[in-house]
Amino acid sequence: MQTVAIVGVGLIGASFGLAIRKSGFSGHILGVSSRPAVEAGLATGAISDAATLEEAVSKADLIYLAQPVDRIMETLGWLGAKARPETLITDAGSTKSAIVSAAAALQYAPFVGGHPMAGKETRGAQSADADLFRNRTYVLTPHLHPVPGNFRRLLDAIGAKVIEMTAEEHDATVALTSHLPQLVSTALAALMAGQNQPGVKDVFGSGLLDMTRLALSPAELWSSILATNKANVIQGLDRYTQVLAELKQALLMDDLDAFFGRAAEFSATLRKPNYKTK
Amino acid sequence: MQTVAIVGVGLIGASFGLAIRKSGFSGHILGVSSRPAVEAGLATGAISDAATLEEAVSKADLIYLAQPVDRIMETLGWLGAKARPETLITDAGSTKSAIVSAAAALQYAPFVGGHPMAGKETRGAQSADADLFRNRTYVLTPHLHPVPGNFRRLLDAIGAKVIEMTAEEHDATVALTSHLPQLVSTALAALMAGQNQPGVKDVFGSGLLDMTRLALSPAELWSSILATNKANVIQGLDRYTQVLAELKQALLMDDLDAFFGRAAEFSATLRKPNYKTK
Fold this sequence. Notes:
11 helices
C-alpha cells in the first residue's frame, strides 16, 4: 500500500492518519476535507498532502471515509463508477446497513464497512491522537468482498481489536450499546432542563455529570446516525420503557435487589480487562 | 467545640473526621462503628478514639450520623431521650424528610439535617479523603433550630458550599438529580443484561461506560434511600417515561434538534465553574 486518502480530516480521520504513520506507514497520506481541516491535518502530520476527491480516486490504494454518515453515503454515490478496482474503499461511519446499501453504487472498487469504537469529547483534527484506536474494538462488516490482508494488517498495526460481523448485526448491537444510551442521556438532561425545581442546578453529585455527558453531543452529529438506524433504535426505546415500568413496579414493592444485582453484574462485566475500551 | 462523635465510620464519616482535623480542629474525634471501621478510622487518623454510642452521647458536643438512611433513623430513635440539650445532632443521609421525622424523637437535643453531595466509587474509611467536601454542595435542612454558628463554621472550614433548604425541597430535588439518574442507569444495564444480541459486551464505547457506572451501586446502598423518597422518585420516573415518549415521536419525525439543543444546554450549565462539583 503506497497511498492512502482520508476523506474527512476530523478527529477520526486525522487520528487514522497519525496512527498509520506511527505504525510505520511511509507512503503518501492524502487529505480530502475543508480547508481548515486540511490545514490542521497538515500541521499535525496526520496527512502529507491536500487533495481533491478526483485526485484521491486516481492515486489512492485505500480511501478511508471518515465523514458523518450522510456525507459518507453521498461520497459513495460520487465514487460510483469512478473508483478503480485497485482501490479499497472503507468507512468509519457509526451505522453500517445504510452505508453498505449506498456502497452498491461502487461499480468496480471493493468496499469493506468499518466502525472504530473510539472517540473523544473534543472534535476535529486538532484533537487527533495516534493511539485513538489502540485496544479499542474496530468492527468490520465485509459484504461482497473479504477483508483484504493489507488493510487488516494496517488495523492490527494501529492496535485496533478487529471484530467482523454483518452490517445488520452491527446496527442492532450499537442501537443498544451506543444509540440508546445517547437518547437516555439526552432525555434525562431535557427533563431537567424543563424543571423549575429550585436547586436542580446546584444540588447534584458526580453521578448526574456522568449521566449527562453524552447529552452534550450536538444533534448535527446524531441526526444521520439515528435516521439510518431508526427501527432498531425505536425497538430499543420501547424495550427500555418496558424495563423502566418493571423497575417502577419493583420500587413500589420494595423489591429492587434482583434488578440492582443484574445491572451491577452486567456493568462490572463491561469493565473486565478483556472488555475494557476506555 | 471540644468533642465530635462520628457514628458510622465509612467513607463519609471518616472523610468528615479527616477534614475537620485538617482544618484545625484539635479536640477528640470519637468513632462509633463496627470494629473494622473503627480500626481503619484510627489508622488513618479520621478518629482519635473508639467509643460506644453511650459514651458519645455523654461526651460529644456534636454527633455526626454518617450511616445509611435506615440506620440513621434507628440511631435517632435510640438517642431520643438520652441526647443532652448541649449536643447538636446532625446527619449525612441521602434523604431528609423521613430523617427529620425520625428526629422528632429527640426530646432535648437540637437537630439539623444535612446531605453532603460528595462521594466516591470506593467505600469505607480506607478511601476517606480530607478534601472530599471541598467545593462540593452541602445541603442543610434546619427545621426547629437554626444552624448553630460553630457547626456552620466547621462546614465552611472544610470547604463545603452550604445551601439551606427544607427537607421537602431537598428530597424533591435529589429525586431528579440523584435518584432518577441512578434508576435510569440501573434500568439501562438491566436491559442489556437481558440481551442475547451477540457483541453487546464487545461493541461499545466510552459512552456506555459512563451510562452504567451508577449501575455498579449495590441495592443495599439504595434500598433505604429510595424507600424514603418513593413518591418523588415515582413522579420522576413517570415524567422521564413521558419525555422518552416525546423523544420517540421526535425521532420518528426526524425532528430531534430542539431536544438535543435543550439537553446540551442544560448539561453545559451543570459544567460551568460555579456549578462544578467534580
